[in-house]
Specification:
By secondary structure, this protein is mainly alpha-helical. It has a single domain (10-49, 58-486), classed as MFS general substrate transporter like domains (Growth Hormone, Chain: A, Up-down Bundle), CATH 1.20.1250. The protein has helices at residues 6-24, 30-39, 49-53, 64-83, 85-116, 126-145, 155-168, 171-181, 186-195, 197-206, 229-242, 254-259, 262-267, 270-274, 277-298, 300-307, 312-327, 329-354, 358-364, 367-385, 392-417, 423-438, 441-449, 457-469, 472-486. The longest helix has 32 residues, at 85-116. The radius of gyration is 23 Å and the shape is globular. It is found in: Membrane. Residues 232-264 are annotated as: Disordered.
């Protein structure tokens, strides 16, 4: 990694981190933005007359139809955040980085400008703007994840760091809420976000590759401002044979090179991985944990309103506390990647010494991460199910740690468990399938608000049982790795 390209790579890393931190996952600060929208009387016409009269006092959030409308917007936006990663992942794989980033900038700028010029009378435009905002954000994340390839052994740490920054970007809506309370209009804040597109464009052409960053890196690899025609040809030529992490010389022993899965990966198509048991259980693991997080974020304003006895001041205080804890996702996520990197290096050294499968050793490093993420989600879900307002501070803390581990671990697992030439498509597919499951959050919210009369006990019990199911995934991966170590020729 040392050499004349190091300053450029560090600049790419830091600006990518800033991009993910400031723009990629802002949707998940939805609770802060809902507070502002309610103050601006968005969808207030759906409320009962008596609720409208109380809108400036304690009854502002006490409107079932209004809450359902905001929940529906978040459901659609979070669905698009995941579902569109499959076609956008294909675009990234097929048309490379520059095209994917220009598409991201188009969606993001269109969305921020639309939100900037909406009002209570045109609040329906949020149904278009919020999904577009999330599509742009997820494309920013996908194109930045490859930056981990520039830093070799620290690859998983950087991938999880970027996913943590994605989580932390939800604090942007808290900043907008605080500025709003200081008389900075919603329009001014979103026009500023739109103007930042100039920075995104500059970064696309100066600090990012035209194509993909291969792994492992070929000698004298260059990109961005420093890349020329020759380097792009070299990248194209080396990306195919060298883009498989498990075949790098630092990872595989001679035995692993001749009998490991690397050669088998050449013969296997994308769909053979998509229909594998490993991928299916990973999809279950991600979908269940993600549903908990989406349901919690999408209904947080309503939950806090009920627990606080409709005290608007308390709702604002807890909303701010939640958004502040989200910012620390960028500090939590790298620990997951660091754990995986350290375990992978240790297991691969043992594999090299014993002559066992280095690929299985690398995959084994993901097992503790998968199990720990499930455990964190279980703790978060238990706290969220207890209707005690002060306990929600603990819920917020566990939620941000669990969520930062979830998405960082998801991306890192896919890079370890499957060939990297299929990463964009597999990442997109698992997010798209989990998005379909995430659509359950709206009927669940309607069920709680309607037949269950604001008592989520039965829903929480069912979801807690489903959370226990996620522990099957790390167990099966562990069993598979053990079998693989004993019989390296087994696919």
């Amino acid at each position: 990694m040392a050499g004349p390209g190091l300053p450029l790579r560090v600049a790419t890393l830091l600006t990518g981190l800033l991009e993910c931190l400031g723009f990629a996952g802002v949707l998940f600060g939805w609770a802060s933005l809902v507070f502002v929208f309610k103050t601006e009387h968005y969808f207030e016409e759906l409320c009962e007359p008596e609720a409208g009269l109380l809108s400036n006092t304690t009854g502002q959030a006490d409107c079932k139809a209004q809450d359902e409308r905001f929940s529906l917007i978040f459901t659609l936006a979070s669905f698009m955040n995941n579902f569109m990663t499959f076609p956008t992942g294909y675009i990234f794989d097929r048309f490379k980085t520059t095209v994917a980033r220009l598409l991201a900038i188009f969606f993001y700028t269109s969305a921020t400008l639309t939100i900037a010029f909406t009002s209570a009378g045109s609040a329906w435009l949020l149904f278009l703007a919020m999904p577009a905002l999330t599509i742009g954000g997820i494309l920013f994340l996908i194109t930045n994840l490859q930056i981990g390839n520039l830093f070799g052994k620290h690859r998983s740490t950087i991938i999880t760091l970027y996913n943590g920054a994605f989580d932390s970007s939800s604090a942007v809506f808290l900043i907008i809420k605080l500025l709003y309370e200081q008389d900075i209009s919603l329009r001014a804040s979103f026009i500023f976000l739109s103007a930042c597109s100039v920075w995104h464009v500059g970064r696309t052409f100066l600090l990012m590759p035209r194509g993909h960053i291969p792994y492992p890196l070929p000698p004298n690899y260059s990109y961005g401002l420093c890349s020329g025609r020759g380097s792009r040809k070299e990248e194209k030529k080396t990306a195919e044979p060298e883009n498989r992490e498990l075949q790098s010389s630092e990872c595989l022993s001679p035995k692993g090179e001749s009998s490991g899965p690397g050669q088998q990966q050449k013969l296997r198509s994308f769909w053979s991985y998509a229909f594998s048991r490993r991928f299916a259980w990973h999809m279950v693991w991600l979908s269940v944990i993600q549903l908990w997080h989406y349901l919690f974020i999408g209904t947080l304003n309503s939950l806090l309103t009920n627990l606080a006895g409709r005290d608007r001041t308390q709702v604002s205080t807890y909303t701010n506390a939640f958004a502040i804890t989200q910012f620390f996702g960028v500090l939590c996520a790298p620990w997951n990647g660091l754990l995986m990197d350290r375990l992978r290096q240790r297991y691969q050294k043992e594999a090299k010494r014993t002559g066992s499968s280095a690929a299985a050793a690398a995959l084994s490093s993901a097992v503790p991460s998968l199990a720990l993420t499930s455990l964190l989600c279980l703790g978060f879900a238990l706290c969220a199910s207890v209707p005690v307002l002060p306990l929600q501070y603990v819920t917020f803390l566990l939620q941000v740690i669990s969520r930062s581990f979830l998405y960082g671990g998801n991306a890192a697992f896919l890079t370890l468990a499957f060939p990297s030439e299929h990463f964009g498509k597999l990442f997109g597919l698992v997010m798209a399938l989990s998005a379909i499951v995430s659509l359950l959050q709206f009927p669940i919210f309607t069920l709680i608000k309607g037949p269950l009369q604001n008592n989520p006990l039965y829903v929480n019990v069912v979801l807690l049982l489903a959370t226990l199911l996620t522990f099957v995934h790390p167990f099966l991966v562990y069993r598979e790795c053990q079998a693989w170590k004993e019989n390296p020729s087994k696919p």
